[in-house]
From TrEMBL:
It comes from Eleginops maclovinus (Patagonian blennie). This is Retinol dehydrogenase 11. The keyword Oxidoreductase applies. The keyword Lyase does not apply. Belongs to the short-chain dehydrogenases/reductases (SDR) family. Pfam families: adh_short (PF00106). GO terms for molecular function: oxidoreductase activity. Residues 1-20 form the signal peptide. It comes from the Eukaryota.
């Protein structure tokens, strides 16, 4: 017998199949949105970056629960396709597309102005839109494009919508961050594209750390208002998140991902959990992992003095001069 014959043995084939099945099932978290009976009739939700990936499935879940859902997307074509798909799949026609480029402060202001004019209430805001692996680009506001997209734009958007959310309380803000924040560092010159290393996901990791720091500080500021703010890690999810990386890396990611990584639908679960689960009622300033467990973020994300400073700097950077 040749040693390679071992791999054709039925026991080998069977145990490989069982292992693959176990690994695949492990991807499912402990909380199942389908067994959650919360309805969102009469509630309004905004999901940024809702035309693809995790954001699309978050929006679809809200639509299925009867919410008025606003898809905040930057592309008319991609947004319209998602709008049609979500309306069809959910049977909910109260789903709408509003355009916003979260990397531009002017665009965020214009979007928020429209929302404040058109909407009577806002109960859920999911800051989901983000980019990873962008090469160095400076926006017209003078910020590194990844920082503008992932942190400063969403920071401004949240602040502009806060009063509406307070009037609509109870309301929840969910920031889709990442476990990668643990590799991030805080250096305020990064905001302007200085002292950054653009290799792989370096810049992305910093932005995700700022997401959690500022969400925690926001939660602190919102105490007693009925508006909560939490951040989540969605898991490693097979989406278009690697679109700015080399094709070889995307190929390996998708190959391994088939067994080990989450689908976009599975990746949406921790955000949905924070946005509507009864278990999260009144809970604020927390970081939720991809299994919907509240866990401690990195020490830098728990440094209160740093959070106060970070929040104040972001307020100054995003304020109109
Ligand atoms: N996938 C993962 O493994 C993973 C892991 C940890 C955390 N996350 C986080 O999960 C969230 C969703 O990511 P994803 O994996 O679903 O990525 P994705 O498939 O690339 O989707 C990103 C979404 O953000 C939108 N977007 C990007 N830049 C924007 C801008 N300037 N203005 C408005 N919208 C913009 C994109 O719109 P276009 O389609 O028009 O570009 C798209 O709808 C992100 O916050 C990401 O950091 C993902």
């Amino acid at each position: 017998m040749h040693w390679l014959d071992l791999f054709y043995h039925p026991v080998w084939v069977l145990s490989t199949a069982v292992l693959a099945l176990v690994v695949r099932m492990q991807r499912r978290g402990s909380w199942d949105p389908q067994s959650c009976s919360v309805r969102l009739k009469g509630k309004t939700a905004i999901v940024t970056g809702a035309n693809t990936g995790i954001g699309k499935f978050i929006a679809l879940d809200f639509a299925r629960r009867g919410a008025r859902v606003i898809l905040a997307c930057r592309s008319q074509a991609r947004g319209s396709a998602a709008l049609q798909e979500i309306r069809e799949k959910s049977g909910n026609s109260d789903v709408h597309l509003r355009l916003v480029d979260v990397s531009s402060l002017d665009s965020v202001r214009e979007f928020a102005e429209g929302i404040l004019k058109e909407e009577e209430a806002l109960h859920i805001l999911v800051n989901n839109a983000a980019v990873s692996g962008l090469p160095r680009q400076i926006t017209k506001d003078g910020f590194d494009a990844s920082f503008a997209t992932n942190h400063l734009g969403p920071f401004l958007l949240t602040n502009l919508l806060l009063d509406l959310m307070k009037r609509s309380a109870p309301a929840r803000i969910v920031t889709v961050a990442s476990v990668n924040h643990k590799k991030g560092e805080v250096d305020f010159s990064h905001f302007h594209g200085e002292n950054l290393n653009y290799f792989m996901d370096n810049v992305y990791n910093h932005t995700k750390l700022h997401n959690i720091i500022c969400t925690n500080q926001l939660a602190h500021r919102l105490q007693g208002t009925g508006v909560t703010a939490n951040s989540v890690h969605p898991g490693i999810v097979m989406t278009e998140v690697l679109r700015h990386y080399p094709w070889s890396l995307r190929f390996i990611f998708n190959l391994i991902g088939f067994f080990f990584f989450k689908t976009p639908e599975e990746g949406a679960v921790s955000s949905i959990f924070c946005a509507l689960a009864e278990e999260m009622e009144g809970i604020t300033g927390k970081y939720c992992d991809s299994d919907c467990q509240l866990v401690l973020p990195a020490p830098l994300a728990r440094d209160t003095a740093l959070a106060v400073k970070d929040f104040e700097i972001c307020e100054r950077l995003t304020s109109k001069l």
